[in-house]
Fold:
Amino acid sequence: MRITVIGTGYLGAVHAACMAEIGHEVLGVDVDTAKIEALAAGRPPFHEPGLGEVLSRNVERGRLRFATSLAEAAEFGDVHFLCVGTPQKPGSNAADLRHVDAVIDGLAPHLHRETLVAGKSTVPVGTAARLTARVREAAPVGAGAELAWNPEFLREGFAVQDTLHPDRLVVGVASASADDLLRAVYAPMLGG
Ligand SMILES: NC(=O)c1ccc[n+]([C@@H]2O[C@H](COP(=O)([O-])OP(=O)(O)OC[C@H]3O[C@@H](n4cnc5c(N)ncnc54)[C@H](O)[C@@H]3O)[C@@H](O)[C@H]2O)c1
Structure:
């Protein structure tokens, strides 16, 4: 399967490398060109046990590439994992969703074929419903772009292990086909 991981920070870099490790073709996308250059050279921009090996192995195999273009991501991916940051807003308990919104607004107009956008970032209740409407509005009419959520529970220091051998997978989907697609993505690590 062809997968994109948008936002290749802590969560996204690990997810991208591990998706390639289980056999998918992966394109990681970020706005930070220095981070993209390091990852493309097989160098993690932060320390996480085991990540360097998984990253460099899959870059060398040609299964894992990195870029900065959302148009390229839309062209490439069957499933797009959204892994951008959702920091706390200064002086408030609310999450700042501007990066999530920016990716949806930048990606959706390029989604010309049937695709699933699966959010992994930590977001408040109601975000997926709001973003579903945003995707419907911005994606080309009749293209069949859909949104799901697939929150992540990895622990720093155990991120590679937790991603390759999760003790749970949580998905929120609006259709049986989205459920099937996410099951197919994760099947190799579940012995399927
Ligand atoms: N780090 C963890 O252990 C962990 C665990 C579970 C869930 N999460 C959640 O995952 C999300 C990401 O966390 P993180 O720790 O990886 O954050 P991070 O700050 O390390 O990475 C976020 C990345 O998103 C990129 N980005 C920002 N705007 C972008 C855009 N418009 N297009 C493409 N890339 C963009 C940034 O350049 C950065 O590389 C957060 O919602 C966090 O709560 C993190």
Q: What stands out?
A: Residues 29 and 67 are 5 Å apart (CA to CA). The chain has one domain: 2-190. Residues 6-12, 29-32, 35, 83-86, 99, 102-103, 121-122, 152, 154, 156 surround nicotinamide-adenine-dinucleotide (CB under 6 Å).
